From TrEMBL:
Pfam families in the cross-refs: DJ-1_PfpI (PF01965)
GO molecular function terms listed in the Swiss-Prot or TrEMBL record: transferase activity
Domain DJ-1/PfpI: 2-174
Record has Transferase as a keyword: yes
Recorded superkingdom: Bacteria
Protein name as annotated: Glutamine amidotransferase
UniProt keyword Transferase present: yes
Record keywords, A-Z: Glutamine amidotransferase, Transferase
């Protein structure tokens, strides 16, 4: 069984996790025989958070409840509140998860938080620019490993800038292996271009159409 954890914090950027949450929860394009997936929201306590878009959500569990193993995935969305001390606990847990082989996805402001605790110092990564990291992550020393790309996957860490929620989602779905390769390719092409031909390819790639 795979467990997907989404970290909740005030001012969470709703749109950055829109694609990944929709596909993981709906399972509408999953391949056959995908192991059971459990999705849980997690935070430093069970106080409801308010997203940047004004939605309120109560976490399902606490950081201490996260299973530290290779079957776990932790998604860290962008937010304007990553600098607050109370989020240090999830960053400590993130390092434990990386060491255990779990998949970590960080986007936008979360990349600065990762940078500030040294997690990006020895992995290829991206963010909202080097100037952004130098400004918001004073302890960052990962400059040699920075790639000026919308999203980057290195081993079990996937990072993205604030505009790359779609590509970030593609890389996460690829890493956790819930889509067939041709389904994921057509899915990304359709949602990134709007070309209806890719929607047809997407539908044709699904298990019900491959018998």
């Amino acid at each position: 069984m795979k467990t997907i954890y989404i970290y909740l914090l005030d001012t969470l950027a709703d749109w950055e996790i829109g694609y990944i949450m929709s596909e993981l929860r709906s399972k509408r394009f999953f391949k056959r025989d995908v192991p059971e997936i459990t999705i849980k929201t997690v935070s430093y306590d069970l106080t409801p958070i308010t997203t940047m878009g004004g939605f309120t959500r109560t976490p399902d569990c606490l950081i201490a409840d996260i299973l530290v193993n290779a079957s776990s995935t932790l998604l860290l969305p962008g937010a304007d509140t990553w600098h607050e001390q109370k989020h240090q606990a999830i960053l400590v847990k993130t390092r434990d998860l990386l060491d255990a082989g779990a998949t970590i996805g960080g986007i936008c402001g979360a990349t600065a938080a990762l940078a500030n605790v040294g997690i990006l110092d020895d992995r290829m990564h991206t963010s909202n620019g080097l100037v952004f990291l130098d400004m918001f992550a004073k302890a960052y020393h990962g400059h040699p490993h920075y790639l000026d790309e919308p999203a980057v996957s290195d081993r079990n860490l996937i990072t993205a800038n604030s505009t790359a929620g779609l590509l970030w989602t593609k890389l996460i779905l690829e890493k956790i292996g819930v889509f067939e390769v041709d389904t994921l390719t057509a899915w990304y092409q359709y949602f990134s271009t709007g070309d209806a031909a890719y929607f047809f390819e997407l539908m044709q790639s699904l298990p019900a159409n491959s018998e």
